[in-house]
Design brief:
354 residues; 13 helices; 4-stranded mixed sheet; Rossmann fold; 2 domains; globular; single chain; 34% helix; alpha/beta; 6-stranded parallel sheet; 13% strand
């Protein structure tokens, strides 16, 4: 969701007086309170049988469409994906115009404004390209994650309770939603031991349901570490990462948080596409991966032995860690939002508008 923030910022900048409503799954409601500068309110989407993200509430779907029509939206922009299913759902919301990406001409209504889905490119740039085509110029590619005073206080209290010295700790995040996106726990432990040998206090972070994984990494370590065991809120975690010297993680949500708060990071990418998901600022955020023919994949568990994780050794990650730690913090550019040398690999070549 964070990768859509630059597109929302562009829309808000282009339409400062418009009322912008986010439609999403229940967890996205908190996004509105955090990003109130760009989004005004929220409507919960009850799910659909053709979408895997949640068990659909069939009884609630008609009420959802009724509420959407009651709002009288001028434009409904599909920021979910390539559109084979979602475009048709957006078109039932009653907006005067709908817009989004499409794969085939059957994926959308000709009365809307649709751009062909790009075959490649970074996630941030994809959504910026779409809203730019709608007339909203980019207002920066950078990510944001506003942290409240209460969340900073939560992080400070947690650090004090564990005796962790501010500015002398690193965060190691071994989890990811899909097991195929996780680097090996024994290698995270080896990397964490290396960081501890340099004098850093190591905080192992993870969600409540990742407790067995974080405990496994800590058990494999020789040095002491601090396992937060899901004790911190998302905003508190962002505050912790903001105060860390470094984050080491898989390619998962915390890597985007580090990019948003400006903390240097080393990201191990296994099953995902680094061209699409790696932080745009390659100086501040190093991505470690090895090419495999089966990337990207969406398997929960790799069916062929996890070669993308096997190929990334602890030494490769440690080498990138040393580069990051040896670089002075003031050596980073004042504008940390530098794009990679490559841009959108295949630009959309067709737009349909009526």
């Amino acid at each position: 969701m964070l990768c859509v923030v630059p597109a929302l910022r562009a829309v808000r900048t282009a339409c400062p007086n418009s009322r912008i409503t986010l439609i999403g799954l229940p967890w996205a409601a908190s996004f509105v309170s955090r990003f109130g500068a760009y989004v005004d309110d929220f409507i919960e989407f009850p799910g659909h049988p053709a979408l895997p993200e949640r068990v659909p509430d069939a009884d609630a779907l008609p009420r959802f469409f009724e509420e959407s029509k009651r709002r009288g939206f001028d434009v409904a922009i599909q920021l979910h994906g390539s559109g084979p299913v979602v475009n048709r759902l957006v078109e039932q919301m009653g907006a005067r115009r709908s817009a989004g990406y499409f794969l085939t001409n059957e994926d959308h209504d000709s009365r809307g404004f649709y751009v062909r889905w790009p075959n490649g490119g970074h996630e941030i740039e994809k959504w910026l390209w779409l809203v730019r085509a709608l007339g909203a110029p980019a207002a920066g590619q950078h990510l944001e994650f506003p942290v409240t005073d209460a969340e900073r206080a939560e992080a400070e209290t947690l650090l004090q309770s564990h005796g962790i010295e501010a500015g002398r700790y690193v965060c190691v995040h071994p989890g990811a939603r899909l097991k195929s996106r996780r680097w090996h726990p024994e290698r995270f432990a080896e990397v964490a031991d290396f960081l501890a040998s340099l004098g850093y206090q190591v905080i192992i972070t993870g969600s409540e349901w990742e407790r067995p994984l974080t405990a496994d990494v800590r058990r494999r370590m020789r040095a002491d570490s601090f396992d937060l065991k899901g004790e911190v809120s998302l905003g508190g975690l962002a505050a912790l990462i903001a105060g860390a010297r470094l984050l080491v993680s898989n390619d998962t949500g915390v890597s985007h948080i580090a990019a948003a708060v400006g903390t240097p990071s080393v990201i191990v990418t296994t099953g995902s596409d680094p061209r699409r998901w790696s932080p745009l600022d390659a100086e501040r955020h190093a991505t470690v991966y090895r090419p495999v023919d089966c990337r990207p994949c969406a398997f929960d568990v790799c069916p062929i032995g996890h070669p993308c994780a096997d190929a990334v050794t602890a030494d490769l990650v440690i080498a990138e860690i040393e580069k990051q730690l040896n670089r002075r913090t003031d050596a980073f550019p004042q504008n940390p939002h530098l794009a990679r040398s490559w841009k959108l690999l295949v630009l959309p070549d067709e737009a349909v508008a009526t």
